[in-house]
Amino acid sequence: MSILKLENITRDFYDGRQIRRVLHSTNLAFIPGELVVLSGPSGSGKTTLLSIMGLVLKPSEGKIYLNDKDLTQINDNEAAMLRLKYYGFIFQQHMLIEGLSVIDNILLAYAVQGSKVTAQQRQKAYGLLEKLGLKDTAHMQPLSLSGGMKQRVSIARALIKDPLILLCDEPTASLDAENGITVMKILKKSALEDQRIVLVVSHDSRVFPFSDRLIKIENGKIVSDTKENYQ
Amino acid sequence: MRLWVAIKIAIHDRSSTAGAVLGVVAIIFLVGQQLSVFFGLLNLMSVLPDHSNADVWIMSKNIRNSDSGNLISGAYIDRVIGISEVEWIEPLLIGSALFRRGDGSFEPVRVIGLRRPRIAGGPWSFHSSDEKVLLDLEAVVVDKLDLSKLGHPSLDEIGEIGEKRVRIGAIATGARGFQGTLLFAPLEKVREISKTPPGRYSALLVKLDEKSDKESVIKKIKDILPNCSVFSSQELSSLSRKYYITNTGIGGSFLFSTSIAIMIGVVIITLTMYTSVLSRKKDFALIRAIGGRKRDIFIIVVGEVFFITFIGIFVGFLLLSTLLSYTVNSQIPSYLPLKVAPLLALGAFIVSLIGSLFALKVALATDPASVFH
User: For residue B304, what are the contacts with CB-CB under 8 A and spacing of at least 6?
Assistant: First the structure.
């Protein structure tokens, strides 16, 4: 049963002179428990597709369904609410807010709309940090962490709310091989054990062995969508 | 949590925060200083009606301030005293003359003649001696801050005003006039100095029974004395202040310098908040992407402005109070009424918000999709 479904999604951009279609009619469906890798060369439309799936960009045409609910006409606030409730994001750059401690960065995912952080949520954040090998960094500033540690903190921020969908934009791009593999192992485990959709956008071939499904995109079109275990 | 984020960001972003705080401090300090001088000057403009201890002033017809008018007849005293609500009525004579300094040079002064023994309308606060010295015909009272203009005469020193012998009997405080040095003396002495004919006065000061209706008594006096101006002390005070504000350029000058101070503050706040928000666009995009709404960004930015303004107001008032404590007994007329302070703080907050509008606009326009680029 698919949780997230895209139906004839397209996206056009105006480049200052003309309207350019960067994403052609796309149909995709995602089920929980699989790690999907979306791969393609630069400018192929991966990030556009990811942004539409993450409800941060509206499609020009087509429909997007989450738990069978049509999200095409939702407004900004509704989209924000859905992102808060169902989504987790991991970015190419760690995107941690300087000035907030590691634990505050993680808890921000809970409290971004102003709700109070409970002791239980705080405890969960500490637990997650311990699980990711960052137990002693809770009160440190992001500046004092290594690149790999920062990316693991951003994973903790994405996982803290147990999201249904985890969207990862080039999560290994700024990491060395060892840290990259560590991150992918965490994501794989998260997909399997927590039964969530994990979508990884990457053109790094090192991530392919972790995927349950590999979607290739070129010039805004899906050119292949294969379910194979590369491991 | 959003306000917590705002404060943490402001603390982390030290240089921008310090810049914006400087803007708020500039507004509080510069505008506060301008205001204190303005209120100090206002006090000088209406010093006589404000401290006369009288309820009603009777002066010649068509006067425009408390310092100038034709002489009026002393016969009016008998007419007014007949009103049952009148407790007392005392004449006041204002004259101009030259004070001869110790070195032989002259200083123009305004002499205020007070009738003994009540000496109503006289000095009210003293540095040395007291108002009783005016029971002596030759004694004059001068303000401490005006002593330097008179060549630093000491207490009991004999001097000359309009070629008439006087003695510095007491030194007052806060008894300075807007038009120049004030000297208080017995009425007869001032009549002698200013060569005013007997039975003529500059003003009549009336004290009313506490239980009386002031408005109705003023009306009665006006009916009795149709050829005079009759004001309550507050009305005369306001009239004098308005006259000097509009006719001396002080109002315009104050408005101009205050506007400049506000503009400097707004520019500093605008630039620092704008660059600060620009440098944190990615943070705002992240907040939007992980579920923050525009209103959450608004709360964070305004929270930051609130925090910065609070610090700026605190530092600004600290500096301002230091300045005022140093100038309170100086030649610079400075006085800031307590009720003005919260208005000034509110004004600084509003100006800070205005200064942050550009920054807010940039922050709210942040595209959450930009986190993926």
Answer: B6, B7, B9, B10
Phi first, then psi, for residue B144 (nearest 5°) are -55, -40
- C-alpha B365/C-alpha B338 separation (Å) is 41
Phi-psi region of B114 (alpha: psi -120 to 50; beta: other; left: phi over 0): beta
A29, part of any domain: yes
Number of H helices, E strands in chain A: 6, 10
> What's the gap in Å between the CA of A110 and the closest CA on chain B?
9
CATH number at residue A71: 3.40.50.300
Which chain B residue lies closest to A112 (C-alpha atoms)? Answer: B292
Query: How far apart are alpha carbons B271 and B178 in whole angstroms?
Result: 41
For B258-291, write each residue's pLDDT tens digit.
Answer: 888 888 888 888 888 788 788 888 888 999 999 9
Nearest by CB to B287, which of A77, A112, A115?
Answer: A112
State which residue of chain A sits closest to B8, comparing Cα positions: A99
Residue pLDDT, tens place only, B200-253: 999 999 999 988 999 999 999 999 999 999 999 999 999 999 999 888 888 788
Nearest to A95 among B5, B286, B296 (CB): B286
B356 within some domain: yes
pLDDT digit string (tens) for A68-125?
A: 899 988 999 999 999 999 999 998 888 899 889 999 999 988 888 888 889 999 999 9
Q: Are strands B139-143 and B200-201 parallel, antiparallel or unpaired?
A: unpaired
* Measured distance CA(B10)–CA(A229) in Å, rounded: 48
Where in the sequence is the domain holding B258, given as residue range(s)?
Answer: 2-44+249-372
For residue B291, give the nearest of A95, A112, A117 by CB distance.
Answer: A112
Q: Which residues of B touch A (CB under 8 A)?
A: 1-2, 4-5, 8-9, 11-13, 282-283, 286-294, 296, 299, 367-369, 371-373
The predicted complex's ipTM stands at 0.89
Determine, yes or no, domain membership for A231.
no
Q: Which residues of A64-100 are buried (b: 16+ CB within 10 A; e: fewer)?
A: bbbeeeebeebeeeebbbbbbebbbbbbbbbbbbebb
Could you tell me if residue B208 is inside a domain? no
Rounded CA-CA distance B94/B112 in Å is 5
- What residue type is assigned to position B23 of the chain? G
Residue A80 to residue B293, Cβ atoms within 8 A: yes
Q: Chain B residues with CB inside 8 Å of A116's CB?
A: 1
User: Is B137 inside a domain boundary?
Assistant: yes
Out of A51, A83, A98, the one facing B290 most closely (by C-beta) is A83
Instruction: Tell me the residue range of the domain where A126 lies.
Output: 4-226
Strand partners, A168: A90, A200
Strand partners, B94: B112
Q: Are A55 and A87 in contact (CB under 8 A)?
A: yes
